[in-house]
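Quick one, tokens below. Sequence please?
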């Protein structure tokens, strides 16, 4: 799944959480995102900035559903997980035995393969501690970190009924 597809399928509340975090914690990036997306749609940023906050979020969400904004959408997800969801990353890395810096940033290379049983156990731990939609979005974004994704992650996302974006 690509980032724009996650934006298409995700629960709007999850996306609102992402945009709220972005606006509150990464103000410059939020402004730059609005400006870049507006430019992509051949609009002036002020067109979006004059909207109410819920309307801004709706417009950004609608725009990130487009294939042309996939790279930007993926970057926003990565930033949100790396800076705004550290506990989730740390929990996942610890459960998978992936070395990290204590904040969830992987040290060295990601493994070429992920053990399916260990992954299932890690996902069980994540689902005990975090919203299932957040966990699903994380796994989808994590699976983008290698060209074709990890077979075990792809299989689990396709077979575990707890892992749904909506």
């Amino acid at each position: 799944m690509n980032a724009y597809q996650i934006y298409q399928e995700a629960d709007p509340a999850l996306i609102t959480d992402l945009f709220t975090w972005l606006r509150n914690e990464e103000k410059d990036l939020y402004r730059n995102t609005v400006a870049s997306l507006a430019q992509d749609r051949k609009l002036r940023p002020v067109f979006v900035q004059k909207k109410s906050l819920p309307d801004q979020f709706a417009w950004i969400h609608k725009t990130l559903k487009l294939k042309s904004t996939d790279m930007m959408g993926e970057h926003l997800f990565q930033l949100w997980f790396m800076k705004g969801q550290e506990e989730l990353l740390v929990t996942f890395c610890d459960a998978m035995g992936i070395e990290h810096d204590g904040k969830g940033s992987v040290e060295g290379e990601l493994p070429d393969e992920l053990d399916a049983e260990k992954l299932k156990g890690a996902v069980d731990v994540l689902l005990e501690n975090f919203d299932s939609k957040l966990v699903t979005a994380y796994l989808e974004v994590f699976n983008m970190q290698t060209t074709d994704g990890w077979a075990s992650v792809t299989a689990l996302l396709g077979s575990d009924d707890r892992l749904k974006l909506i």
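The chain has a mean pLDDT of 94. The CA atoms of residues 18 and 80 lie 7 Å apart.
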